[in-house]
Amino acid sequence: FYGTIRLLKQKENGDWYLLHEYKQEKYTIWGIGLDKKTKKIFVAPNNLELEILVDQVKLSQ
Length: 61
What we know:
Elements: E1 3-10, E2 16-24, E3 31-35, E4 40-44, E5 48-51
Antiparallel strand pairs: 1-2, 3-4, 4-5
């Protein structure tokens, strides 16, 4: 699990652009993903699944 981490961000017009890039050559890369339908966070490389309760989180804007 070595390689390059790339963070993409979507513009208001729907296009995507590269926000950040980091090359990992020595240690394990950890990745996260969010499934909005199931309200779960996935963590790699350990294949962890975390369930979140979005309704109980107050988001400041």
